[in-house]
Design a protein that fits this description.
Blueprint lengths: L10 H16 L15 E14 L2 E2 L3 H12 L6 E5 L11 H12 L20 E12 L24 H10 L5 H4 L9 H4 L1 H8 L17
Antiparallel strand pairs: 1-2, 1-4, 3-4
Helix pairs in contact: 2-3
Length: about 220
Amino acid sequence: MRSMTRTPLSRSRLAALLVPALLLGGCMGTENRGLESVHQPVVSRADFTFDVATAGDTLAPGEAARLSGWFDAVKVRYGDRITIDDPVSDGTPDARSGVRGDVARIAGARGLLLSATPAISGTPVAPGTVRVIVSRMRADVPGCPDWSRDTSNEFESNTSSNHGCAINSNLAAMIANPEDLVRGRTGTETFDPAASTKAIDIFRKAAPSGAGGLKAESAGGK
């Protein structure tokens, strides 16, 4: 009877088989071929609508309380844009100023302003009602943090797969109006030097923190 024996692989042959697998693993992950990161802020928008009844130029009785409760339900906050779709106003901001005033007071109680630009929603507004729209925009950077690529085996001169995640995530979190990342904002025609230098003026007039001197401390018992 012939015995079956196993011949172990030599270390050189085993290394030759593992090298291609290691090289393939080093080429996997997100590719950043330039200095501009592939991880860019993405802006999303959500519109919340609420129809309230009107009585002439004002909100109908009880509608102010309903609207206030709805604002609390959707958790209106800084950065939200509040607009009104009123078919009777025909796109004129001054028309039905009483209705706008009622909505503006409810929004103002939460520290928000009513946008002067009339809104146009996708669905028709029922007669005798106006539609209040809360537009909420959010900016975030999907896929971050990203450590999918091994930089120790980089043969294609890519930057790190996580390149740009920190700065763009901070930009998306700190920007007051995410819409500015999409459209930007044009400068105003008027310029108020007093308003633009107000923060600098306060800083200059503030008393130095060490102006009062140092407090003497004693190590004695009394």
